[in-house]
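We emphasize that the prediction below concerns an isolated chain of 250 residues; any contacts that depend on oligomerization or on bound cofactors are therefore not represented. The input was used exactly as deposited, without trimming of termini.
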Amino acid sequence: MTDRERLVGERYRLLRRVASGAAGTVWRGLDEAAGRDVAVRRPRLPGDPGDEAYRRAAHRLHHEARAAARVDHPAAVRIHDVVVEEAGPDGLPWIVMEWVPGESLHEALLRGPLRPPEAARVGLAVLGALRAAHAVGIVHRAVGPPNVLLGPHGRVALTGFGTARPPGEEALRGGGPAADLRSLGALLHTAVAGDGPAGGPLGALADRLRSPDAGVRPEAEEAARLLEAVISVAPPTPERRGAIRSSPST
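Result of the prediction step, given as a token string:
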């Protein structure tokens, strides 16, 4: 059976593979019951599905994907359903999400960095989604340009919730909400400067967010105020570098 022929959970028809990487594969699909486009993500875990550690990680991924469905924010991609097929050999879930037409921030940055006000607008939206997730006990763990979608009418949407880590790995990495904020700092730096130095107020904020020193890193509320200040100085214009295209992606 080809991907296009596959029906997941007796409801979600896989239409086209749109992305694939170490963390899994994403298809554009059709919810045949509701008649709407969806994105269907099949996570990938390293290791042997027969190992106990793998089974624990798969169970955790399933649990976290269901928990992530509680995240409610305009800048968070909504999770519609989590499907585990009993006959599946690896026990991994299919995560069914809203389809966001547009492109990823990663794709937009291939054309060059964003102006600081536009990067701040993207960062503020991502921060809002993270704060909503943290409020219900969800840590994203994979904040980065590939997981930030730029949709129609200026919408910014954070996807990739439900990424599992092996037990204990989060603690070893210094995980938790602070790790998400550090990743947001890295995202802001990349958005305005790529691999080079980032100056100005936004560069300073990015450096503070990325700091390993908790006394230097701003809390989410302060970071939001600083991002709003950058936006207010020079509102983005339609002619900004890296303007959003309309090609479909998720």
